[in-house]
Amino acid sequence: MMKTLMAATAALTLTITAASAQVISIATPPQGSVWNTMASVIAAQARENSGLKVTVSPVGGNEAMLRALAAGQAEFTLDDVNDVITATTGTGQWKDKAITNLRIVAKINPFPVGLFVRSDSGMESVSDLEGKTVPSGWDAFPLGRSHIDGILAAGGLTMEDVKGVPVPELIRGVDAMTSGRVDSAFFAVGGPKVAEADASTGGIRFLKIDTDEQSLKRIQQVRPAFYFSKVDPAPFRAGVKEPMEFVTWDNVLVTSADVPDETVSQMLAVLSENKAAIAKAYPPLGAFSIDTAYKPYPGVEYHPGAISFYEDHGIEPVK
User: Fold this and answer.
1) d(Cα 219, Cα 217) in Å, to the nearest integer?
2) Residues of the chain under the 70 pLDDT cut
3) What's the CA gap between 114 and 276, in Å, rounded?
């Protein structure tokens, strides 16, 4: 009996040790991107307050991030919900190469994005970009194509009205603007790379867009989950000189169907229980609320571990 008990205890100890030693990876774009910054903050809180061994793994861009999940090379990523929907359904840029095992964990925050220019450029609105140069190509970050199309549409323009200058991904796109190779750059509001561009050029400004009903229809023809949101000036929002409207989408935490329920629920607990510390480390994450994190989206499912977490905490799907 004693030998049996000792064997069972040893087996349990090995199981706990193996679980605690598991490294959980969050795939992101390169350092300097908003997703990389957000993931780094979340990972730090997870390591400090939950005992989870969470690392951040920079890869090439949004397509590489989702493929890392599908291949089991990472457990989580942060992405535009539109990208997850199109990847899951095999539409848009994901035609004939769908990834069907992607699952949503949580809506993290609204993600306003825009095109910005040097403050001394004389341009104020997206419509002023007609005939000017705009980053294009995005071979390492294909998601940028739909984002640029949506922002231009909110200014009454298309890529045919501007001059495209090929860039591979987000960081290099901003570098092209600061070096003078392109007139405008694309990034998320509040991104650290935007602050860097602001400091290195003597000032930048985000361009204004139209937000009437016709403009909304135009951006939703590009991506159905696009919408407009108002953003107020703040110290961490370089280039936002006054209250402005931006093309916006929901930023979501994504996993794969193969990730264990317990791992997903542990990550949700990190987000919920450390909200204040996470927001202090990176203010845009202050928009996260566990009470509104369970937002259904067309064409993509929530992970069972996330659903169980929400049900256990009395959190209803957002209507």
Assistant:
1) 6
2) 1-21
3) 27
The pLDDT score that the predictor gives to residue 319 is: 80
Integer CA distances (angstroms), 182 to 135, 138, 151, 220, in order: 7, 14, 17, 27
Domain with CATH 3.40.190.10 in the chain: 19-109+251-312, 112-249
**For residue 21, what pLDDT is reported?**
55
Contacts (Cβ under 8 Å, ≥6 apart) of 31:
58
DSSP3 helix / strand / coil % (the chain, rounded to 5): 45, 25, 30
Q: Are 297 and 249 in contact (CB under 8 A)?
A: no
CA distance 317 to 275: 20
AA identity, residue 271: L
| Architecture of the domain whose range is 112-249 | 3-Layer(aba) Sandwich (3.40)
Which of 268, 117, 255 has the alpha carbon at shortest distance from 186? 117
- Would you tell me the crossing angle of helices 261-273 and 304-312 to the nearest 10 degrees? 50
What is the reported pTM?
Answer: 0.77
Exposure on the CB side of residue 44, measured as CA atoms within 13 A: 13
Amino acid in position 242: E
The tokens 């450390």 sit on which residue? Answer: 274
| Start-to-end C-alpha separation, the chain | 56
Please answer whether residues 208 and 125 qualify as being in contact, where contact means their C-beta atoms are separated by less than 8 angstroms.
yes
